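Report of the visiting student (M.T.), summer placement. My assignment was to run the structure pipeline on a short list of targets and document each run. The first record concerns TetR/AcrR family transcriptional regulator.
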Amino acid sequence: MNKKGQKTREHIKKCAAVLFAEKGFKQVTMKDICEAAQLSRGGLYCHYESTRQIFQEMIDDMMSRQDQEFDLRIGQNQSAVTILDDILEGYRKEMLDSRSSLSTAIYEYFSLPEIAGQKNALYQQYLISANTWKKLIQYGIDRKEFHEVDIEAVFHLIVFSYQGVRMYSKLMPVDEGIPSGIVRQIKKILVKG
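After the run finished, the structure tokens were exported:
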């Protein structure tokens, strides 16, 4: 795909993300995306066949970006604490921003019968995230920056508290104290001294 086509795809996904965060997955149509991206139907269908294809690519992109960021920073021999601080700060900001949360859309998408039946697609995404986080936590332990911890349990604490707050933030106000407290406790569990 040429540069212009890739740029158009990125624009479509950016516009679609706003709609999915606002309406959830099931309520967004290709027509909605055409309007938001200011494309004709033909222009949109030239790049994507369905909202499912757009959303799946968005999920794949998010997972790939996170994994690449962790790998790059570990490969650069950066401090595990610095990497953790940066990632958790991003999570803290996302937990406060209910308008851009894709949690409802993710739940709706992965609960579709045709998606749920695909070798448990959500679980596959979970495993990718788990491997990425486990790599970072083990890196921090190996560098003696993190305490020896039950890596899987800490990953569960991180992912389920993050996703839980993101989901609840769609239903009720979430003040700064909730994500800040979660981040503080995760650091307390992991970071030495």
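The chain has a mean pLDDT of 89. The chain is about 75% helix and 0% strand. I thank the supervising group for their guidance throughout the placement.
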